């Protein structure tokens, strides 16, 4: 349901929306390498805390495209944000002119879509990467911290 909403709202392809999901796993794997190597020497509760903070920050960044980027449909210029309107203000998107730097109406719609899609894509990728980095910190070190701190009788109950 989330992938379909991202594809519909930001006019993105299925490959790009699946890549957004994969970025979280990339962040997890990169952080897992460092966590596995340095995890023994780290202050575990503090590392778990910063992992949770990074996950929270990633969740906020993932929500930003829904507030910052407008839903742009081809041919609908009034939904364009002010940053995308600079193409129209510069005179580049006027189909009646015969200058070499002007674009047709369809090309202007594609420029508006690509600009908004790129902004949403970058914010979603950044948020998912932060979530992956934070998840690796608290998932791996959390289990180790519980096993080191709890007694053998209570540990199976705490790990679930």
TrEMBL record:
Keyword flag Transcription regulation: no
Keyword Metal-binding assigned: no
Residue ranges crossing the lipid bilayer per the database entry: 19-39, 46-68, 120-146
GO biological process: sodium-independent organic anion transport
Gene3D superfamilies noted in UniProt: MFS general substrate transporter like domains (1.20.1250.20)
Classification via InterPro entries: MFS_trans_sf, OATP
Gene Ontology CC annotation, any one: basolateral plasma membrane
Gene Ontology MF annotations: sodium-independent organic anion transmembrane transporter activity
Keywords from the UniProt entry: Disulfide bond, Membrane, Transmembrane, Transmembrane helix
PANTHER family: ORGANIC ANION TRANSPORTER (PTHR11388), SOLUTE CARRIER ORGANIC ANION TRANSPORTER FAMILY MEMBER 5A1 (PTHR11388:SF142)
Protein name (Swiss-Prot/TrEMBL): Uncharacterized protein
């Amino acid at each position: 349901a989330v992938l379909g909403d991202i594809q519909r709202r930001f006019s993105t392809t299925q490959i790009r929306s699946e890549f957004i999901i994969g970025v979280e796993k990339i962040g997890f794997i990169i952080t897992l390498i460092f966590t596995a190597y340095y995890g023994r020497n780290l202050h575990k509760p503090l590392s778990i805390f910063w992992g949770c903070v990074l996950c929270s920050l990633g969740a906020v960044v993932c929500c930003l495209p829904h507030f910052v980027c407008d839903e742009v449909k081809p041919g609908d210029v009034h939904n364009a944000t002010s940053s995308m309107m600079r193409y129209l203000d510069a005179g580049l998107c006027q189909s009646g002119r015969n200058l070499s730097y002007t674009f047709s109406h369809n090309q202007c719609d594609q420029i508006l879509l690509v600009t908004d899609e790129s902004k949403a894509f970058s914010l979603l990728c950044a948020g998912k990467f932060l979530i992956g980095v934070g998840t690796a910190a608290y998932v791996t070190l959390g289990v180790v911290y519980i096993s080191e701190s709890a007694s053998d009788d209570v540990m199976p109950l705490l790990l679930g």
